[in-house]
Amino acid sequence: MTEPAPASDDAVGSALAGARNVPLWLDAAGRPAPRPALVGDLTVDLAVVGGGLTGLWAALLAAEAEPGRRVVLLEGASLGWAASGRNGGFCSSSLTHGLANGMARWPGEMPALQRMGAENLDAIEDTIARHGIDCGFRRSGELIVAVQPWQVDDLAEVAEATRGLGEPAELLSAEETRAVVDSPTYLGGLREPHGTALVDPARLVWGLAAAAMAAGVEIHEGTRVTAVRDEGDRVRLLTPSGTVLARRAVLGTSAFPSPLRRLRPFVVPVWDHVLATEPLTAEQRASLGWKGGEGVADAGNQFHYYRLTDDDRLVWGGYDALYYFGSDLGARRARRPVTERMLAEHLFATFPQLAGVRISHAWAGAIDTCSRFTAFWGRGLGGKVAAVQGFTGLGVGASRFGALVALDLVDGRETERTRLRMVRTKPVPFPPEPLRWAGIEVTRRSLARADEAGGRRNLWLRTLDRLGMGFDS
Ligand SMILES: Cc1cc2nc3c(=O)[nH]c(=O)nc-3n(C[C@H](O)[C@H](O)[C@H](O)COP(=O)(O)OP(=O)(O)OC[C@H]3O[C@@H](n4cnc5c(N)ncnc54)[C@H](O)[C@@H]3O)c2cc1C
Fold first, then answer.
1. Quick check: CB of 215 below 6 Å from ligand 1?
2. Which residues pair with 48 in a beta bridge?
3. Residue 47 DSSP class
């Protein structure tokens, strides 16, 4: 970034001192007591594996569509402890990780994908209202900001493509952007008034779990599925404390190794870090402008995303998407002082008026990155099992759509959704180690260099573009 000089090391160090290494959203008094683990053997119509947003949507949608269908959800740890409770809470209508990615891959399908995405976001809002889920859902819109001259041109292109699909997008000058949110680093902006809501993701998880249970879903936490076996017209899910015999199963296991082994090469876990400040004072809050409370992201390859919370904290994440050799998912990766410091420096460089504000929370989570940046679906065991994963950092909203498609597939329904090329095709798989790590490192470095070189992509990135592959968060 070419912003004004960052706050001094000492100031950043003291802002970070005492930050809790817990996701802000999970550090809440309203966190429900865990549901008991499975003990013994169960027979059900549908088993759902994974207690994040994907699994919860699958369970709730299945139970609501067919009351009386016996549905069980098995979560290996606790509901929402992984990506679903660690994200930025941007609930986007995009099913394609943004318009540009969708246009590059499925230009012909984009009108349908955009419409289905808008319907999906409406349906999320409707479900939240219908079940009285108190998760701060707010149609905030999004402001994408240019912090490098080349990004101003990129935003103009995105604005044109967005309008080409009949959707509103307002291109803003530097002054107009700063009148919306006041940062000296902004060179321009693009305001998309529809298509993004902000949400407290953990409260959404807990609310969906309560709604699912009210609809008859049985939930077991602390119950890791170790294998799924074919038993003729059913499947048996094995766990350390019991088994589940199910007619059908849906897997929403995200960045974790899929029980369907052949899906594993399609996803790598990418660690993304987030900071949250203490609640801002009225004066600090006013110094930002930001009256519309939009979700904000900058337009680089390595990008920050940030937003305000109901209690006026600033949540600030992104930029340094990290992959560790061997697809490491170890808990120790959730803390990385060098990244936390860099994020805090960027925060204070973007908003120098917040000098002296303390960071209350610093955390990280694993994103299920695939090489095309959108969900993909897989089937196994004679079609009795369907899996969805690969949301690549934009799954808060898309997880509901992903779950709907997985239910279509596992129930043998042919729908407009299942006819999509996005649904019928898979991303290019990642190679095994050590090529995987080396390839991702070269790509990360190339993306960082492109950000520094006016957005120009080197030969490596251009080759990946031609192969329909990439690395993102
Ligand atoms: C730091 C960060 C910021 C993000 N920001 C945004 C954002 O602002 N907007 C956005 O749209 N997206 C964002 N994302 C992505 C988004 O959080 C996810 O796409 C979304 O939550 C999808 O959740 P999921 O249910 O598929 O995965 P998860 O929430 O990871 O849930 C998967 C669950 O499956 C369980 N599981 C795995 N294997 C097994 C097994 N064998 N048996 C039982 N259980 C198992 C895990 O324990 C886990 O709870 C972000 C992600 C991260 C990490």
1. no
2. 73, 250
3. E
